[in-house]
Amino acid sequence: MISTNVRGGERDSLIDADLEAVWNEIPLTKDDVSLSYKYLYPVYACGYNWLDSNVESATRLAKRIKEIKNTYLAKGNKCEKVIIVTHSMGGLVARHYSEILNGAENILGIVHGVMPSIGAAATYTRMKAGTEGNGLASHLATTVIGQTGTDSIMEAVGAKILGENAAEMTAVLSQSPGPLQLLPGKEYGMHWLKFQAGNQLCSKPETDPFDDIYTVRGKWWSMCEDHLINPNNVSNNKIQMDKDWESYFLMLTEKVQPFIDELAGKFHKNSYAFYSRSDNYLSYGNVIWRAVSPMVEAKQQMDSLLDARGVTQTDVSNTRDAVGVATYTSGSVNFLSTFKLSQPEEPGDGTVPVRSGNIPRNYLQSCLEVDVGHEPAYKDSDRARDFVLRAIVKITRAVNETSLAYK
Length: 407
Known about the structure:
Layout: H1 10-13, H2 30-36, H3 54-74, E1 82-87, H4 89-100, E2 107-113, H5 122-129, H6 135-145, H7 151-162, H8 166-173, H9 177-180, E3 193-197, E4 200-204, H10 209-214, H11 238-263, E5 271-276, E6 278-283, E7 287-293, H12 299-306, E8 319-328, E9 331-341, E10 346-348, H13 354-357, E11 366-370, H14 382-396
Parallel strand pairs: 1-2, 2-5, 3-7, 5-11
Antiparallel strand pairs: 3-4, 6-10, 7-9, 8-9
């Protein structure tokens, strides 16, 4: 995109161009572009294991950047800082490296694409119902089989790979800190997990998502269902289930929650970002469990439903059965209620809702809004690519504060 310094190319075409940024629209000037031609932009990639902790991935990124810099320094060339371009979770990796591992001194600037900056509620739904109908599934299918096809076919193949239901997803995610570090933290806000039955509406979390949702055991709505953690424990041995739950609990409290809490509100000072606001790619902003039968008319009945375990252990898709208690003057009666997981309702990119993709302006130099799916966010949007190119050129101005500045 910018590794060649041929004048008259894409950079020049963006001079004075209006990309209609959400805020702080800052067209390139001739001086911006002229300065960029004085430097080379060799492009490197840094992959990571998305199942592993993003702390480990950030450490790997730190090592990779050090290796790249040393390669040039060993040849007598100057190489002081890098520009990082991220996609999705990669943004969290870059932010952790920059702000927590003190890597900011090695970074000229960062450009984020479709980053779930404060988490994605879809992480909860994947634990409860599997992966279906989202860009991640299609992307993984394309990567594995090496070709593209219709959306429905690619989503189906991707779901097969990632996990079609709660049993398959829980067995993996319950021991994988990386994906769970995408869970909504306190920054996301409260009351995004909702329960609706008749005229009764309840919501969680009330104070902390880890205490109120992620570490809650034994409820039909619990994010992690203890009997699904270990597929080898077919007899549901209680001692084994307790050990498995303890491992999951420790991973959450020692690796997931600290990562989310520590990163909150931390961005490199020279950051740019784009996100999607699309009605074509609705995302989970709120997650709603709606009772399809019977209707609940009293708070006591609703409370009893939320305190119940699932009726069976075979519910692993988007419905759960629970037994509530209705109390009358004549006595109490048990009743069965079936809850169904809602479809996503918030504009976004199919994975990241607007509330998480739209980073507060005090953290960014500029921000662009596009209409695009999560996985192909760079590929499918000319405006996104132009914005990233422009951001790289704008970031280059900070070189004047380094030893690479032309005097």
